[in-house]
Design a protein that fits this description.
178 residues, Porin, 8-stranded antiparallel beta barrel, 1 helix, 19% helix, elongated, Outer membrane protein with beta-barrel domain
Length: 178
């Protein structure tokens, strides 16, 4: 139920915001061309050698709660980025620490960038009331979409961790590229 609502809100925000984002970028590109300047920002790709830093929210399907997410990517080229992500969840007496090292390859569409997510995962789950802790290494896979607006990127992802602490996540984040 919570997952369905979260996904619904994510798509509403994305599809309501997309026309305004497209119009704003189109207007900006036309103004730059009129002024004789070439637009350096792209709606789906990242500048080679740049760094992208972001924060967001993630919904855990196993815990049924939303956590806070941080990510840092190094953009090898326009299509390729990789880097660490960290997400923290707390529900009642359970804390979950989810650490990933991910790789994205971006495919351009006219509106958004679409990318597969693959990577490695390390998860720690703590039951505070029983002083019990469990950890596991695993693999991560999923899919994401994003849209760049100059140096700002808005993204949505679905990822799945396969390990003894398997879980699925839906994430929404905002990033800044340096």
């Amino acid at each position: 139920m919570i997952l369905t609502r979260f996904i619904g809100i994510l798509f509403i925000i994305f599809f309501i915001g997309s026309p305004q984002i497209i119009m704003a970028q189109h207007t900006s590109e036309n103004q730059s061309k009129e002024e004789g300047k070439e637009e350096k920002h792209h709606h789906t790709f990242f500048e080679k050698g740049s760094i992208t830093l972001g924060v967001g929210a993630a919904l855990s399907s196993e815990l049924g709660t939303v956590g806070i997410n941080g990510r840092l990517y190094y953009n090898i080229g326009e299509h390729i980025c990789f880097g660490p992500e960290f997400t923290y969840f707390k529900k009642n007496e359970i804390e979950l620490y989810d650490m990933d090292f991910v790789f994205h390859y971006i495919f351009e569409t006219p509106i958004v960038g679409i990318y597969p997510v693959v990577g490695l995962n390390y998860t720690i789950e703590k039951e505070l009331d029983h002083h019990h802790e469990e950890d596991a290494f695993g693999v991560l896979w999923g899919v994401g979409v994003h849209r760049n607006i100059k140096n700002i990127t808005i993204l949505g992802e679905f990822t799945r961790v396969e390990s003894s602490l398997s879980d699925s996540f839906v994430s929404l984040a905002i990033l800044y590229t340096f």
